[in-house]
Amino acid sequence: MSVFYYHQDDINTDLLFPGKYTYQCSSGPEIKEHLFEDLDPTFKEKVQPGDVVMAGENFGCGSSREQPVVGLKYLGVKAVIACSFARIFYRSAINQGLLLIACPEAVAAYAEGDEVDVNPTEGKVKVGDRTFEFPPLPDEIMEILEDGGLLSHLRKTYGRTGSEE
Amino acid sequence: MGKTFAQKVLERAAGRLVKPGEIVFAEPDLIMSHDNTAAIIDKFRTILPEGNVRYPERLAVVLDHVVPAATCKNAADHAKIREFVEEQGIENFYDAGTGICHQVVPEMGLTLPGTIIVGSDSHTCTYGAFNCFAAGIDRTETAGLWVTGRTWFVVPETISIELSGFFGERVSAKDLILTIIGDLGAAGANYKAVEFHGHSVSTLRLFERMTIANMGVEMGAKLTVFPPDRNVMGYVRDRGVDSKRSAWSDSDAEFYTVHEYDLSRIVPVVARPHSVDNVVPVEELEPTRIDQIFLGTCTNGRLEDLGTAAEMLEGGRIDPSVRMVVAPASREVYLAALKQGALQILLEAGAMVLPPGCGPCLGAHQGVLAPGERCLSTANRNFRGRMGEPESEIFLASPETAAASALTGYITDPREVM
Ligand code: SF4
Q1: What's the number of domains chain A is made of?
Q2: CB pair distance less than 8 Å for B138 and A57
Q3: What was the ipTM of the complex prediction?
Q4: Is residue A156 part of a domain?
Q5: Nearest-angstrom CA–CA distance, B295 and B305
Q6: What's the rounded Cα separation, in Å, for the pair B17 and B314?
Q7: Which among A147, B98, B293, B393 is most buried, taking Cβ atoms within 10 Å?
Q8: Rounded to the nearest whole angstrom, what is the distance from the C-alpha of residue B99 to the centroid of ligand 1?
Q9: Mind listing the pLDDT tens digit for each residue in B36-69?
Q10: In chain B, positions 304-363, which contact chain A (CB-CB < 8 Å)?
Q11: Does A72 fall in a domain?
Q12: Phi first, then psi: what are they for B292, rounded to 5°?
């Protein structure tokens, strides 16, 4: 497990996924090619399933494009831990079933090389040998996350039974 | 204890009393999407492979982001959207050339005061100028709304901004909202509703309120909203729409914070690269040469904005080192600017005029920037790489500052060239 730590506030969605590709790419593999392009061009090569991203305040501000979240989910990133998140980005993560943890203490505690582990059901994040708690999500939201995002959540109720399509 | 605008609107939608911090489910009155409708269709079809949109009459679809299509992919997306709206009987469909969604939706009389509007675009907050509860969402949630018609909202706390005084010469709404964002910061209103109060609100015309409401998201706001006063009711009358649901906060409503601004103290400002809250008065900026000026977007592409720029450029010549790109926000704006002569003046001064739409705002076409180039734009975002190469720079300013700078070739205080 690696931690991608960006010691910056206001990391916007243009840095995470440039606007010029918004109407060119929407699938996971296409998005991967440009994910974090203007923030950290090496990210897409290095990231592995189970990795964690950490950042400062207001992560994901700016455009409502959801490619950054779709990309992170596609690459198997386990969680993004930041001091705070921008509103639309936060909703987007729920809609894609990506765990976001707003925990400034955990971000502040991180030092290079620390192991980071998250336990969403208990509301705990471990950084090195310190453990921090974050408030649990409301039930309605947790349900969407547990179903793996809004589309699969709605498929359970509205879609035809099974997954024949 | 009195209630805020957001509380009242969500109470009505949820059919119960609510407090800030609570989650409520509600049915938005309007669900807007633009070129990203193509991606939404795909998502919608993973839930209902053959079914129909639940409330087609509540959808508005506007093609504006990359119009006319710049690539085969855009063209295919547009074609797919046209087919879908036809098949689903979506009447509020506005094809390429009508204009930018945030200009077209109000023009079509869809911004009913007191209603809830969501849009798969972050600047959906623009409709707060018309007393709407208007918030941006993503594509996936929009697909979900097409299926169910409802979504969740956290009842926000509310920031009040009180306005007094009048703008000085060549100072405008853009300078005010940039100043506010500079003060509060890019996350200063995160998750909050922002209400505008005070004596001077009634002096702000709708195009000015739209500029202000449009940029609320640049400080993280969920919505930005103006009162349903005479200006809004005039719009309601002119467009023949319904106003019965307008709402406003009680005089004893509790606000998270209150900020006061005296319009007479606002000066021309710019937001420097690469964040919108990096704001400085133009007069304090070191001499900054520019390669391109972009006058347009959902922030400042309206008739009054074009008119102001034309008035300042009349009889003058754009500095030869600068390219000036003008994109009227809609066909209605384009036509009116044509009839009033503003476009002729801008063209004679050396500008190029694009079709109504987002133009180069999102860096997809029609004026993208080369490495090292600098653009002065009347848009709402100056993030790195937004208009093309990551090594280019965007400064945000008012139409007045854009026009003044067009004449000189460097970022210029519009009060200097009056
Ligand atoms: S003009 Fe720019 S900010 Fe406005 S909707 Fe279009 S791309 Fe978005």
Answers
A1: 1
A2: no
A3: 0.89
A4: no
A5: 8
A6: 56
A7: B293
A8: 11
A9: 999 999 999 999 999 999 999 999 999 999 999 9
A10: 362-363
A11: yes
A12: -140, 145
